[in-house]
Design a protein that fits this description.
Layout (H helix, E strand, L loop, with lengths): L4 H31 L2 H28 L6 H4 L3 H39 L11 H26 L6
Helix pairs in contact: 1-2, 1-5, 2-4, 4-5
């Protein structure tokens, strides 16, 4: 790539990476949660997050490949930036391969338990022991996924 295209491409890929993380985490998920019934929200999340985690992983690769002034060759000369991008990649892959699917599975299991119990997971009258276990599994996986997502989006510094 030419010396003028590489920095612009790097800025675009990094900007998209940061922007999608902020939008997905703080806007889209919150709005969908408040606007949709639980079953529709669950279905939406089940479809959106795998795409988001794949896109996040690809944007981290694009950010590394477009590191100015000479792509990954220049990145290799800046161990801190290389390490931060590697860490971001590892957290994104952990979400893509483990915590994203585990969160989705736990959310679906919780929804099915609501059907079996005949009441919501946050019913004020209390929940069954099975629901308590499903809520705990969801909370653990979801918290890990959120933290990995924030780490992935927040660890990169100026990147060139």
């Amino acid at each position: 790539m030419s010396q003028t295209i590489l920095p612009a491409s790097h800025l675009l890929s990094y900007g998209m990476l940061l922007g999608t993380a902020v939008y997905q985490t703080f806007v889209m998920t919150k709005v969908a949660y408040l606007a949709l019934p639980t079953s529709a929200f669950t279905m939406l999340q089940k479809r959106v997050f795998p795409v988001y985690f794949r896109m996040q992983s690809l944007l981290i690769v694009a950010t590394a490949l477009t590191y100015p002034p000479t792509s990954v060759l220049a990145l290799a000369q800046v161990p801190l930036d290389a390490g931060l991008l590697a860490f971001a990649g590892a957290t994104a892959l952990a979400n893509l391969a483990k915590y994203g699917p585990a969160t989705t599975a736990a959310m679906i299991a919780r929804t099915h338990q609501e059907t079996r119990d005949g009441k919501k997971h946050d019913d004020p009258s209390g929940v069954s022991e099975e629901m308590r276990l499903k809520k705990r599994a969801f909370s653990r996986n979801h918290a890990m996924s959120i933290h990995l997502n924030l780490l992935s989006g927040g660890v990169k510094r100026g990147c060139g």
